[in-house]
Amino acid sequence: MAQGFGVGRIPFGPGTFGSVLGLGWSALLIGSGKLWIFIAGTMAGIALSVWLCGEGEKILKQKDPGSIVLDEIAAMPVCFAGWVWLQWRTAHLLPPIEKVFASWTVVLFLFVAFRLFDIAKPWPIKQSQALPGGWGVTVDDLIAAIYVNVLLLIVAAAGMR
Hints:
By secondary structure, this protein is mainly alpha-helical. It has one domain (7-159). 75% of the residues lie in helices and 0% in strands. The chain contains seven helices and no strands. Helix 2 (35-60) runs antiparallel to helix 3 and helix 3 packs parallel to helix 7 (133-159).
């Protein structure tokens, strides 16, 4: 599971392919139309990532191996959190999933921004990898997702003027 059901074993760009799976996980959570399901599913995914990525490190006997991609999968809904909040704030409900992915420019923006932050690892993303076990594997992706949200909210605020 930590290897994203085998996606992490793809020899090139496993983190990118894991992030694509994360888009599916995000679509499932947002598609429920319920904010509490989005939040609960995101939190459960993060908790599962910390645990299973830590176990994956032990099994593979490596620190944060590239084949472990559950952290990317779990972080992708966090990338959508700012967008979900903006939707909830204006309509008090989540839009139908067709509307979410019809906004392909938003999805592409979130995806590319996440991959760039995850690959470049600006402060403190790289430093967070020193955390023990699954925390070090997962937290760096969560910080990258938070950076994505900050960027999204800046872009959204600039567009609202």
